[in-house]
Amino acid sequence: MITMNTNLSSISIISQTTFLPSFSSFASPQLPRIIITPSTTIRSCTSSHKPKRQTISYDHHHHLLFPNAQERYSKNDSQINHSKNISIVRDMLFSKEGNKASLQSMMLIDTLQHMGHDHLFKEEIGSTLSSIYDNFTHQTRPGHNLFESSLFFRLFRQHGYRVSPKMLKKFIAKNGEFKLASSKDIKGLMSLYEASHLNIGEDILRKGKEFSSKHLWDSIEWLDNKHANQVKETLEHPYHMSIQRYKARRYISMHQDDHENGCKDVVLFELAKYEFNIVQLLHQREFNAILSWWKKTGLAQELSFVRDQPLKWYMWPLTMVPQPHHSKCRIELTKAIAFIYIIDDIFDVYGTLDELSLFTQAINKWDISAIDNLPNYMKVCFNALYNVTNEIAETTLKEYGWNPINTLSKSWGKLCNAFLQEAKWFASKQVPNKDEYLRNAVTSSGVFIVIVHLFFLMGQGLTLENIQHIENDPSFVSISGTILRLWDDLGSAKDENQKGFDGSYLELYMKEHQECTAKEAQDQVMVMISRTWEALNKESFTQSSFPQPLINATLNLARMVRVMYSYNDDNHHLPMLDDYIFSLLHHPL
Questions:
Q1: From the CA atom positions of the chain, what is the Rg in Å?
Q2: Where are the alpha helices (DSSP H) in 61-202?
Q3: Of these four, 183, 273, 405, 537, which has the most CB atoms within 10 Å of its CB?
Q4: 216: nearest Cα among 184, 174, 263
């Protein structure tokens, strides 16, 4: 995935825990037993290549960042209590009957989703929703109020049911707008706002989002602090647009003192905290393994001009497939993502055009003998990529009986072809039109590389038809790439360190629409992102060829894009990424 030129801070392992408020964008954050040192190591290479950025990276202390990751939750009594809580919640799901109980069941399922442990009750939730849906099919308009109708629509569309937002028409006035009578129904407005993000191009949901957003923001002025904070949380982090574990962390912290249902709520929160912390421990161990692998490759030393950011690379798989059983998948996918960044730096920072052409030819041939004419640094990269890709292919063959090496190697060739096209544009000072640029940039985003590798690592839906389909950029992959590229280019406009034309849809849009101000162009790109999300929703809710876990992972990738590319006012800092890393990897509940 292409990223902006950013500064990294070197870190040192020390004997105490120090907490600092922030860290440079894409650098490793302040994790246990780490601080940023006053001095930094700036590595540079002298060569006749095009001017390169200076990178500040790790100072070679790649020790375990979570030395106590094995210790918490080792007692049997915690595990026994955990099992009891699971049984209690299972009984809660099956103990409700009737219309009123249907609403209670939907609210419970929604709570389980917000707490992040709905995966423990997948079968029970599926059975409960099926029963509720069968009951409601005899009613022309399920839901008696805005809250219930919006919740019904959102839950059932999320779970693959064909439901229409027309059920919300009862809340529309004769002028085609939502009735003002609903403007003070805070609970209903929050439910409508959440539902509006599952839009697949429906105008009623666009109006619902505009209506609910306006009146919710207005309500913050007169609500008490507790409810105002809950409204703001919904507006800033709607469930469908958020990473579930991050949302769960925030939801638990915000609602853990709410016990309207007595001991039942206590059980839900105990279960949520235990699940969150157990999975966090697993993620910490995985990151230790990734650091160990990265150190053994020696690439940070041999390719000193490339970004040295294993934590950032790991954040993509961690948020795409967070479930415990995908542990090995996350580790292997991080390795592939590392090479997207490494090869991007070779093309964007260091290589000459002639060298890049030879490198692209070698990648497309995928033959170790094809690297004889490459400079040494490219040989190092090719050998490392070749070995990692073959290891992933061997793992897939061993576990699922399918050797994906041809598909994987083709995907790397395709990425390098797109990178080379951008390098040629840069070298010739030839500026493409915005549409031509975007078509190529969707490929150079690297999204399809990630999804192709994930498809084989997950091992579901491995048929010849699906493999041929995924090699040709299915819509859900290219749409996700478009979202990433547009967000990335919004960030590029803020990166004052970039020199010359390095590729920006925003820049090209303004060139072709010279009457537009920068703000108007940015607003237009945000509209494009919103419409592209609607297209991704439609693909994810309607496609049936690929397994749903892969589609969900693609949605999570798109959700993570905003976190990775939302710079603050100083242009080089990502506060959302800071918060995600602290929440998901650093602090237990």
A1: 25
A2: 76-94, 98-115, 122-136, 146-158, 186-196
A3: 537
A4: 184
* 556, containing H or E segment: helix 548-565
What is the rounded distance in angstroms from the CA atom of residue 589 to the CA atom of residue 575? Answer: 21
Residue type, 552: N
**C-alpha dihedral (296, 301, 305, 306), degrees to nearest 10:** 10
Average pLDDT along the chain: 84
Run of H or E residues at 56: strand 55-56
Contact 122, 148 (CB under 8 A): no
The distance of Cα 406 from the centroid of its chain, to the nearest Å, equals 27
Amino acid at 17: T
Using the structure block, give the residue that is written with the tokens 């497309």.
Answer: 364
Tokens 């993570």 belong to residue: 560
Whole-number Å distance between alpha carbons of 187 and 260: 16
**Angle, helices 146-158/98-115, rounded to nearest 10 degrees:** 60
Torsion of CA 106, 109, 115, 121, to 10 degrees: 180
Terminal C-alpha separation, the chain = 31
Range 366-393 average pLDDT: 96
Q: How confident is the model at residue 56 (pLDDT cuts 50, 70, 90)?
A: very low
Question: Whole-prediction pTM value?
Answer: 0.85
